[in-house]
């Protein structure tokens, strides 16, 4: 959504290195990626696991019962605006029994990234978001009636609302300031009639020390900040 970033993690030494550049058109994006790979030998080493995570708003969830691979583009076009020449990819989300359809940068991924990184695991950030939610829910015993999960990035956030452990809604909003963030958050909460005294908010992608969370706490004190190295927290390092 913002450009391209590389993150290399050495799990044994528990440290990582990151390189990033801001949004550019496809030609520049591909050229800059070539330059980074050529200039940094560490990116040419053999890796145990390589993940490519797309982060954009061009995605939609489709229940498995209604999904057919040959109709993926038609299904996605009914929910988001896509171009005629866009390629559509999809991930299966087991916890939802649904497919996450999304538009990847096919012109960069296929001819370039897959050529340089053979064992490429490709996902959308919403897929990672729901996989993280599944882990959080499995480790939580006192589940409230309403669970609101927020995956916060600089300038945008993903939100998923559950009632009685069933997903009620998912959305992805852009925001320019705290007021816009709160507007979208409370729009979702009020629309779904989430009761504050019966709800808990789970926050991913931040360490819990920022203005947005301070404002949220004025309305709901039942907040749990999930720390760890997820895609949004990686991005926040840049």
Task: Summarize it.
With 238 residues, this protein is α/β, with parallel strands linked by helices. The chain is built from seven helices and twelve strands.
Tell me the strand percentage band. 25-35%
CATH architecture descriptor name of the largest domain: 2-Layer Sandwich
Rg on CA atoms, Å: 19 Å
Q: What distance lies between the first and last C-alpha atoms, to the nearest angstrom?
A: 14 Å
Average pLDDT rating: 85
Assigned CATH class of the largest domain: Alpha Beta
CATH fold description of the largest domain: Nucleotidyltransferase, domain 5
- Helicity, in percent? 25-40%
Largest sheet entry: 5 strands, mixed
User: Can you identify the CATH superfamily of the largest domain?
Assistant: Protein of unknown function DUF3822, C-terminal domain
Overall, the morphology is globular
Order of helices and strands: EEHEEHEEHEHEEEHEHEH
* Counted beta strands: 12
Number of helices: 7
User: What count of structural domains?
Assistant: 3
Strand ordering within the main sheet: 10-9-8-11-12
Q: Which spans of ≥5 residues are poorly predicted at pLDDT below 50?
A: 234-238
Estimated structural class:
alpha/beta
């Amino acid at each position: 959504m913002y450009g391209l970033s590389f993150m290399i993690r050495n799990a044994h030494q528990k440290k990582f290195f990151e390189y990033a550049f801001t949004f550019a058109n496809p030609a520049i994006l591909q050229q800059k990626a070539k330059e980074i790979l050529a200039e940094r030998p560490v990116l040419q080493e053999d890796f145990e696991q390589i993940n490519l995570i797309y982060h954009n708003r061009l995605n939609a969830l489709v229940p498995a019962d209604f999904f057919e691979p040959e109709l993926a583009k038609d299904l996605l076009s009914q929910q988001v605006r896509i171009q005629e020449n866009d390629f559509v990819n999809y991930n299966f989300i087991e916890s939802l029994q649904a497919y996450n359809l999304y538009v990847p940068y096919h012109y960069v991924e296929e001819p370039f990234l897959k050529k340089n990184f053979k064992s490429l695991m490709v996902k959308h950030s919403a897929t990672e978001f729901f996989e993280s939610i599944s882990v959080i829910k499995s480790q939580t015993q006192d589940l409230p009636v309403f669970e609101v999960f927020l995956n916060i990035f600089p300038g945008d956030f993903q939100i998923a609302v559950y009632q009685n452990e069933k997903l009620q809604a998912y959305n992805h909003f852009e925001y320019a300031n705290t007021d816009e963030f709160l507007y979208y958050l409370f729009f979702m909460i009020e629309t779904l009639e989430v009761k504050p005294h019966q709800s808990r908010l789970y926050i991913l992608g931040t360490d819990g020390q920022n203005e947005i969370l301070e404002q949220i706490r004025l309305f709901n004190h039942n907040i749990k900040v999930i720390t760890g190295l997820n895609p949004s927290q990686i991005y926040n390092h840049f």
